Write a sequence for this structure.
């Protein structure tokens, strides 16, 4: 089993940037593909981004393409998401998750593909 802990959330003005981190313990992160999801108040959790084992393949939701970048450092057992040009509507709790198979973006967008989840980190974007 792997434990995931997100950090890096906070309050930022619209147009600002944040870098989220997801640190893994228990098992080496290189065994898993990783995803980021978010859940805004009153809304369902939605897919944001995913990255394969090596970091050579990535997926993004259309809403964040060109502004968010997912990356990983397997030596540090950590996954990152750089978020730029943040918008107020992106206020949400952001979660990282681990899966053991890679597929299409449709596959990696499905929450049930992911075996382990962190507790989330709050991102608040003020207007």
């Amino acid at each position: 089993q792997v434990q995931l802990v997100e950090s890096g959330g906070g309050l930022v003005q619209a147009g600002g940037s944040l870098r989220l981190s997801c640190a893994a313990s228990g098992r080496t992160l290189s065994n898993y593909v990783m995803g980021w999801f978010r859940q805004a108040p009153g809304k369902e959790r939605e897919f944001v981004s995913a990255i394969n084992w090596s970091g050579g393949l990535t997926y993004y939701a259309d809403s964040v393409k060109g502004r968010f970048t997912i990356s990983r450092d397997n030596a540090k057992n950590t996954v990152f998401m750089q978020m730029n040009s943040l918008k107020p509507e992106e206020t949400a709790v952001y979660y990282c998750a681990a899966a053991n198979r890679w597929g299409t973006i449709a596959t990696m967008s499905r929450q049930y593909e992911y075996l382990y989840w962190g507790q989330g980190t709050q991102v608040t974007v003020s207007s």
